[in-house]
Specification:
By secondary structure, the protein is mainly α. Helices cover about 60% and strands about 0% of the residues. The chain folds into three domains: about 170 residues, no CATH class; about 110 residues; about 110 residues, no CATH class.
Amino acid sequence: CVASEAMRGSTPLDVAASSVMDNNGLALALEEPDLEKVVTYLAACGLQSCAMLLAKGYPDLGWNPIEGERFLSFLRFVVFCNGESVEENANVVVKLLIRRPECFGPALRGEGGQGLLAAMQEAIKISDNPALDLPESAAGVYNGSGEEEGEVIHMGNAIMSFYSALIDLLGRCAPEMHLINAGKGEALRIRAILQSLVPTTDLVGIISIPLNMPVLNKDGTVMTEPDMSACFCPDHKAPMVLFLERVYGIEDQSFLLQMLEVGFLPDLQASASLDTEVLSTTETALAMNRYIGSALLPLLTRCAALFSSTEHYAQLIDSTLQTIYRLSKGRSLTKAQRDAIEECLLAICMHLRPSMMQQLLRRLVFDVPMLSEYCQIPLRLLTNHYEQNWKYYCLPSGIINCGVSSEEELLLTKKLFWGIFDSLSQKKYDADLFKMATLCLCAIAGALPPDFVDSSLGATLEKQAPVDAKGNFDPKPINTANISLPEKLEYIANKYAEHSHDKWSSDKVSA
């Protein structure tokens, strides 16, 4: 039975899905009658409950989201292979689904449907109520039927997974942007159909729903972690982001910043908060990494140009930069996820005014000179920043529309240079690290004005000057007894010493 968790991966439907996955040739070989059979089974799931689950005492929903989600997953592989939409199949699937509104579940069936956001919120309420979420006697599922704990199905989660799989499928059926831009009639028609099914307000609402986070007990070791198979989780948000981008597109800066404030940034901050020794390997943390690395950050990267001229939202932008940078040091990231973080951070910073980087530079002054295992991303960030904006720091006129650098920005730049330089001089040679750090040093050095002098340097030296018990200047010259200079250099040193003494005497007399 497709609804059986124990059979997941071994049913004919699962075998077929595995076969067509990333196989364009096989996907294209499927014809409309083949796909219509699958859609027919999917439509049946929208009209009647699963008999097997009813027999086990599960609540009667009046439809079957568990098996429906499996058919939707198969169709997803049919319409999207190797990262690209299979246009022929996508058009056929949309046409077949529209003919059978019951495929969309009660929420999107048409008149009388409460909409996607309301359906997800209702499913969350079901997942919080064991009487609605589990069979009448949950103990019977574990013991009476002889099945393992993993066979337990949570009805609230099943509903959320169904709608997430549906939105994922519809998002992948969306026409590619080049067809939309070319004004292709069929592409415009399909996009209009998809937009009519789910409004942006529902997508924004779902993306903005807070996720359940693990909770540490007072001893700091034992924790309560949300069950990803029972509650609203990051995997339910990713399809909403996909649909939002592929069906609607994000071309308006105010809309992007709204999404960032109410949805994206809270999730980024929640993920960053899980980067601790205890929490970084939890199921929640890994799910957050997948969602952020595969859906959220790539979207921000592609929308990076919209971050230009955001000076009036400096606090929001700075919080975003600081959080993404914090994520780059995560313990449990895969290489692909770390690459996504780097690409996003570099893309956003490239479109910001140099002055908006000041808060992040203050943090990098302390982090980067350590040249830790996570220094590659900030080194590349600094290299790109100073290569792109060297005129802002170096020229008295600065950059048009960006102004000129402040004294603090120049001081931060100088501290970065010497911090990296001093740390590098004490490191054991590593070709990759030294190449990356050298490029960064060259970029920073090229941005500093050649006549830049730290105005606080004189005051610092004055404070550090040695004095005796009465507060009078007490010179303590360096001991040079064991130092020998070449004859010509010693002559220059002596002449300079005589000149310095004569100047000091002259100043004393004139005073």
